[in-house]
Design goal:
697 residues; alpha/beta; Serine Threonine Protein Phosphatase 5, Tetratricopeptide repeat; Rossmann fold; 4 domains; 53% helix; globular
Amino acid sequence: METLFWFKLCSTVLEPSQSFANNRNGHPMDKTRLAQLFQHASQIHRAGDPASAEPIYQEIIQFYPDFADIWHLWGIAAQEMGHHEQAVERFVRAIGIGGEQADSLHCLGRSYQALGRLTSALNCLNQALEKSPGNPHIMASLGLLAQEEKAFQRAESWYLQALSIQETFPQIHFNLGTLCREQSRNTEAKHHFQRALALDPGHWKAHFNLGLIAQLDNQTQQAIDYYEQALRLKPDYWRAHWAMLLVLPTCFSAEEEIIPARNRWLAGVEELSQNFHPQQAKDLEETRHACESTTNFHLHYQGQNDLSAQIAQGRLMTRIAHLVFPGYDQPLSCTIPKAGEKIHVAFVSSFLHGHSIFKTHSGFIIHMDHKLFFVSVFYTGTIQDESLKRVREGSDAFHAIGAQSHLLIEAIRVARPDILIYTDLGMDPMLNLVSALRLAPIQINAGGHPITSGLANMDYFLSSDAMELPHAQAHYSETLIRLPNLAHCYPTPRFERAEPPAGSERLPGDVIYCNLQNLIKLLPRHDGIYPAIAREIPNARFWFIVPGENLGTTFRTRLERAFGNLGLDYETHCRFFPPLGHYQFFGLIQAADIILDGIAWSGNNSSMEALAFDKPIVTLPGETFRSRHTYGILTHLGITATQAQDLDHFIAIAIRLGKDIAFRTEVSRTVAAEKHRLYNDQEPVRGLEKALVALVG
């Protein structure tokens, strides 16, 4: 709240007019008492305790129900505690009494945005700006609204307009930082966060966001330092507390670093499980934000069996979920549909737009038998595109929820589905708490992120019969459902639209080996495969995609060491590409000769797309689902010649493909002849239908 606003309001209350000296029933209130109440409320509110200020505002309102400014402050208190429905009521009352004041319209718009009512939010903010032209605070809020809608260019325009009016506005620099971070423009993001701190050294959220950037860029200790600084400034900033305890490296310099990092994360989960018990409404709301701002995504790339770790986290999330959203811990009975009634199946997803989840999971929605099933979708993402349009048109009911967990819970409660299927658990932190609740009689993890949830209320896990080992149930807390074939109805890749990326040129005689995986999937224990191949094939070239500067530096250092151990120069053999657009990614595949699969985490989408170009893929299956994707895909095609038994065999196959052109051509021809079996396969959809009917009984 702005200091000038408080000064004016204090002056009004300390010298109240006759209308403030008496309530509407004519009963006087002592002026001194009124001033004391207001000063006390303002002091504790401005000190960061809106919950304690609330009852004082309420007492004043009981005597002076037409005091618009107190309604406004009472609304701000509700807003700061996350009670946006109450905030809306109070701001509307303030506007009804005092007219359309810019401050109240501005705050009303912000609460509408928090409730997901974006059109109402935009209307209020535009009206506020009309009342107060050139107000940088309102421009900042318009930027935030555009940013939530993923209208990044419009958001940046609002922020820059605000800075042109008030360059020393730390919150605008902070907002620009979050905008740049969301677009992976991390160098610019760091600049704006650091500028925010230069203007406001106490801006704990800027420290926190610098920690997020450092963590993503594999600067783990620096991230911890930023989180600790945020906590020194605001000890009850639980997002920083959770992030500090649960931070994980994105890429390891050496194999020996993995177990200590893993143990540190497990200790953090134990610390939170034993000692974190929020009770107050304010703490619960901040705890919700903490749980919904982080995942243990990077834990799963360490090549370990994560069942016990997932169960430990699942217990923590379930306990917190029942504190934040009480009343969703009881079993629900599933009513057996009568003749002619449909089974209601609901899908929850944040990524049913032009994303890999659309490719692997939208077929279940679009091609499910709508004569047997009523199919609804709860979309928690914000991106709107043609892929999402197909999902919308292919469902019986489509609910655009956005990133609002309480709205999602309420919408599911009203819809009362028989079966609730989460397509991408572990990818969107907003679903951490929601998925821990019992919202439907039958709840299913659909494996878009191929890791068990560890949640007691998640009943089943959808996997691929072609990709799982016979004893795979031991990897899951859920009951495993093995769908036929590859467990997806994958659309045919539009390979004719491939665009060669810059740097994909080659010299005559080069043999191009391409690894299509994110570098976080490549573990130090496997670095030796590249120089081992290069030693036998001097003109071997290895292509990698680098998602971040420091992560790339870590990986380059590892390759320099691995190649150096064999007396080779990694720079001669390795080329690194920045993140690529979809069709440039296709162009990279098209320009390559041989695809080297990730070993601890095998390619699924990338292998499905590489095979559309008839490329041979070398793979080494492991124990877990996520290490056996390409194995299952190649087995489905009847291709076993490029499936390795161990690391030495992997290297030998890669060398043979590089040297033996006839062998490489034979594998490519087999792929070309059989690849039609990979795409638009509806047998997994029929398998899911059969399983769901059996579950309902």
